[in-house]
Records
---
Amino acid sequence: MATPERIVIAGGGVAAQRCAFKLRELGFDGTLTMVCGEASAPYDRTLLSKDLLAVEPPSIELTLEPAPAYGEAGIELRLDTRATGLDPHARRLRLEGGDETPFDKLVICTGGTAQRPRALVAPGTLVLRELADVAALRDALDACERLIVIGGGFIGGEVASSAAARGLAVTMIEALPAPLAGALGPEVGARVASLHESEGIEVLAGTAAHGCAESANGYEVTLEDGRVIRGDAVVLGAGMAPATEWLAGSGVELDDGIVTDAGCQTSAPDVLAAGDCARWWNPRYATHMRVEHWDTAGRHGATAAAAALGEEVVFAPIPFFWSDQHGVKLQYVGYAPTWDDVQIDDLDPPRSFVARYQRDGELKAVFAASQPRAIAAARRELAATERTI
């Protein structure tokens, strides 16, 4: 269909928001509807585990666009409405409550949901993925003295950092040998662990949390090695799962996300996907990848807008992501699922260092603490040496 008249975007994150406004920027003047599962208009999710958990949150604007901007752009914003099913042949999106909305083109940007391992879910355990999660977590931080964070990834690290800044005693439990060791390796992960420990956080790595239960005085988390860790509140930072369960039976190919080509097209005609829920073919690296980070999601949504209008596009970014922990900016650029050498320049460890990941003598990625110039230089180097296949 060369000129769609009705485009529907399922989702309310940065990928969905960028897609909607990019469509108008590209001249689409048909009916445009955003179906958002949350009750809030698209907002900056990166602020949830940082600024909003401070003792006195700064006065910041969360929304990505002022509320009137959607109406002014002719975008119907349907909040607190989740997609529940899809009939790609009839081109109809099923919604909560039994409603349906027709489309000529559908862009799925439903993001992901916080994982809740069954063995670790007890009444009152907390996660942080959506704006609605913030109030419960703030209340818990206000009331507790000792916090247990299960998971040493970016969300776990940022929550632990915010809690430590409040003066709480924090224990971080990480199944891998060190926080972020899966992506960065044990040597660099050890430096991240040292950063947490330098701020008073107890890091228990190399043993997984086996169970979680309420106790008379709070919670008890049992580790695989038999130790029992006690705290007043528990936050699960066990990762994110793509929000795709509602597509079961639709015929859209799923494999750790919605599988697409480099142009955001799914296996179903006129159905595209972008953002955290999408596992797309990146020709730069000749592999499918799913990247759960803000920068990629925003650019992905804009690319999907062009693809929905029939433009031939190729989404082949160099992945980039960042985190703020203990006043240190942690940044990563590149793609290094494997490497045979990592060169680490310790400038002022653990608050300042640069790690360069290489394979067969070629730079593949750089991770740095408090070194934005090194990241910028690495991005230029990677762009010059890595060519899209």
---
Amino acid sequence: MTNKIPIGLVGLGLMGSSIATAILAAGHAVTAVILNIAEKEEATIRIAEFLEQMQQEDLLKEPAAQLIQRLTMTTDTTLLASHNVIIECITENLQQKKKLYAVLEDIIATDAIIGSNTSAIPVSTLQSGLRYPQRLIGIHWAEPAHITRFMEIICGGQTDINNAYKIMALAESWGKEPSLLKKDIRGFITNRIMYAMLREAFNLVENGYATVEDVDRSLRNDLGYWITFAGPFRFMDITGIPAYFTVMKDLFPELDNSTAAPGTIEKLVKEGALGTANAKGFYSYTPESAEQWEKLFVKFSYEIRKLAEKYPQNVGDLPDKN
């Protein structure tokens, strides 16, 4: 039996199931609270499939069938009472999250850490009204959570930094390469940078400079080639800082600075487009091709993880083993 601390989890939707898988794979027992016991069978099947995928990719130290035995699903929140770390991954609704925190604070120890898997609500906002706001931190996962090495740990205005350091260490034991935000800001790191990129991508398409296909092609074959190896600052170091300074002075004033959501995506949303989930998006799909794109994304996620593990962020500071 594992000697790692048990982890509490609230919410077992698609993301919650993926998070549960990541934690089980790291050797922890998981107590997962679900709203409706009828969800148990579907969530169990989903997590078992995720673990089987990881086993096939040789990413597990123990058999998948053995790991899933450490998963307890319940509707009884009081079963979290003895847990020192609880991860909340319910719907992105402020009032529902606050209602859950109030329940948890009546049950768990005063020094137990609550991590919220939020991507849009500022952590400082989530902390307001808590009896022990220093315990709450943001834990931002990427999808699929059980495959990617991404994680952002976000401090709110009242977070005890030592709690963030504890989760950083825990995340590393889960096989993540976590980033720490010592100050709360909406969107955190990746979302802020990604949405700045998306705004400019829409600008180029909607003003006739390039097609959706052209934008995707350029980014895949430029950004896509180096971004797993180096972040933007390391890449500027490697390729020469002065050139970027020169281009910034000329290009920054011309970049799109719109505050409204692009009309193209608004139209798609009104038409009910979900992307590959319902075969309606920026590209044309059949149900079969949409399913194939989703399967290929999972396959690629495993392959890029293996490549990223060969080149960790500090790889250039380590002795060359080749």
